[in-house]
Design a protein that fits this description.
alpha/beta; 2 domains; 14 helices; 14 strands; about 20% strand
Length: about 350
């Protein structure tokens, strides 16, 4: 039976991980995501489900623990915030190269460097373009509510195991810290070792009787074999683009203009749509739910209808490049953003639409 609770976004993510039958969480505290680890420690899920919760000695150690758990076919998760994710990037690239499923939460804070502990969306490039080394991509989910912080745990694992790839939940300090009511799924029983072995025939669950060794690695010293592996990965990413693109539209049917925004910026744009329409400006909102795969085809379709597109991001302009690629010059595209931890207001968004798109 589902349960309603009033929770912070970070807490909802942590509770959803317990209820999803996660086997292990490995993390390290950093603001503004520390409540994930704190909540898990307080709940003591090992006593309820057998889920392991461990504060590692560093972010580097945590992501390598995730690698180890994922290689055994287990449901494993980690969370951090911008500088901590940067420390995990080598391990994330290893996970992608070894085709291992895992869910990684980034509650983004302002940067660059240590920056501020206030909300930002400045990790878009890092998450969507393969922020570590090598030709790889992550499936990237962008929650815009506390409910989605919970929902994207289950969805993340479904996608991670379906495609044998890491999934990043790209949140921010607004969504992680705000409180809303959330409907929580009932508890799922953790898989037995026998179930893991049956469902994940690739996993290192022990050498099969009279079978070959199962070796999981991202290392291949033979260039020809490595190229074949890279082609396999690229084909998988193309399949993900074809099958898993998700987005939401609000007020787009009759729109003359379009906002494109994700996460907390999309919530701000919902109010901006109301303000603009009250002034007689027909504007709609397209919210990417998957940042990779990006809803390029949908945006391209709307570019044939609208007179201009404004991307609203809490950064210096990152997703705007993907929007420009999607429309390929067919319509004017501009960016409006606040960064360093500053959250834009709906009135500022409407003014930016009027000055950068309508009057620009």
């Amino acid at each position: 039976m589902k349960e309603l609770k009033l929770m912070k976004g970070n807490e909802a993510f942590a509770e959803a991980a317990i209820r999803a039958g996660v086997d292990g969480y490995f993390g390290y505290p950093i603001t503004p995501q520390s409540e994930v680890l704190e909540y898990l420690m307080a709940q003591k899920p090992y006593e309820q489900t057998g889920m392991v919760v461990l504060q590692a000695e560093s972010e580097v150690a945590a992501i390598n623990m995730v690698y180890g758990g994922a290689a055994c076919g287990k449901k494993v998760v980690t969370s951090s915030s911008s500088p901590g994710i940067s420390l995990k990037m080598e391990g994330i690239s290893y996970l992608a190269g070894a085709e291992l499923p895992a869910v990684i939460l980034n509650v983004v804070r302002g940067g660059p460097g240590l920056g501020t502990i206030q909300p930002s969306q400045s990790d878009y490039f890092q998450a969507t373009k393969g922020g570590g080394h090598g030709d790889y991509r992550l499936i990237v989910l962008a929650p815009a509510s506390v409910q989605e912080m919970a929902d994207f745990v289950g969805l993340g694992f479904d996608l991670a195991f379906k495609y044998r790839t890491p999934v990043m939940v790209l949140s921010d300090g607004v969504i992680g810290q705000m409180m809303e009511k959330v409907e929580l799924e009932p508890q799922v029983t953790r898989r037995t070792n026998e179930e893991v072995a049956a469902q994940c025939p690739w996993a290192t669950t022990g050498r099969p009787v009279n079978g070959p060794h199962r070796i999981i690695t991202s290392l291949e010293l033979d260039s020809a074999k490595q190229e074949i592996h890279n082609h396999k990965l690229q084909n998988k990413y193309k399949e993900i683009e074809e099958q898993e693109t998700r987005f939401e539209t609000i007020g787009c049917d009759d729109a003359d203009y379009l906002f494109v925004a994700f996460g907390s910026s999309a919530r701000i744009c919902q109010k901006a749509v109301q303000i603009a329409r009250a002034k007689g400006i027909k504007v709609g909102l397209l919210r990417p739910i998957t940042l990779f795969p990006f809803p390029s085809k949908a945006i391209d379709s709307y570019s044939k209808q609208v007179k201009g597109i404004l991307t609203v991001e809490m950064n210096a302009g990152q997703m705007v490049e993907d929007v420009m690629l999607a429309v390929n010059g067919k319509v004017k595209v501009a960016h409006f953003g606040r960064f360093g931890g500053i959250i834009p207001t709906p009135d500022e968004v409407v003014k930016a639409l009027e000055t950068k798109i309508i009057g620009g």
